[in-house]
Amino acid sequence: MVLCDFRPPEPTIANARALARRYSGWADTVLLGEHHERVDLPNTVLAELVLDEGVKPWVTVTCRDRNSVALEADLAALAELGVAGVHCVTGDVRAPHVRPNSTPVFDLDSVRLTSLAHSFGLSVSVAESPCAEPVDQRPKRTADKYRAGASWCIVNLGVDTAELADFVAAARHEGALLRFAACVPVFTDAVGAGRLDLLPGASLDEAEVAAVLGAIDPVQAGVDHAVRMARAVLAVDGVDGVNLSGPASTTSFEERAAIMRAVSEQLR
After folding, report:
1. Interaxial angle between packed helices 43-52 and 13-23, expressed in degrees from 0 to 180 and rounded to the nearest 10
2. How many other C-beta atoms are found inside a 10 Å radius of the C-beta of residue 230?
3. 113-162: pLDDT as tens digits
4. 2-267 adopts what CATH topology?
5. The model scores a pTM over 0.90
6. CB 6 within 8 A of CB 32
7. How far apart are CA 226 and CA 85, in angstroms?
């Protein structure tokens, strides 16, 4: 599976529809995110318009901003829409200066949300960061999520191929019989690389970033870099997919989609 991040430049139906049309006809699935620092369209609205454009959405659902009643309503709607799947995560706590008038909820965590989503017959993915503390508990927690109903685990940025292989093997040892997809950073400009580097645990390789940004054609260099990384993680035993992560380009949504398409088609 090649899963592409999907983030409209503005939270409007027109922007989302225009971006979805750029993914139509070639994308396996697109990951609809929830962002802690900005307004997003409701995930059910976004999922429906993406489906209308012939694209399969995999929808992120977090516990940070909605209570269990609202989450259950979202899952019921997404099941009725027939989305490709849902990505169930607890959600990061906002820093005090980010949307300071908002109050986090956290009625549920990712394990309980996974169980709830599975009860609606939805395909469920979960996230793990193998190098985040407590490191020794991550494989067991992945197995807990599998037993709750997850069928995919998306491994976040910040691990190399050796660490990825060790984590997959350890999770398998704990009984996690789900499939794994690894996040692959896609960037072609300094702003995009900077956004990825701010993600918890991402820590992009400085030499690789410099090589892409310093190339005669940074767009082609960024595509080549993403393809190399994707092929490397797909060679890891137990890894069956990649999540092409990041803005790809901050120039325009047209270029963003074109870069994601170029990476995806080269992997094919």
Report:
1. 40
2. 24
3. 999 999 999 999 999 999 888 999 999 999 999 999 999 999 999 899 99
4. TIM Barrel (3.20.20)
5. yes
6. yes
7. 24
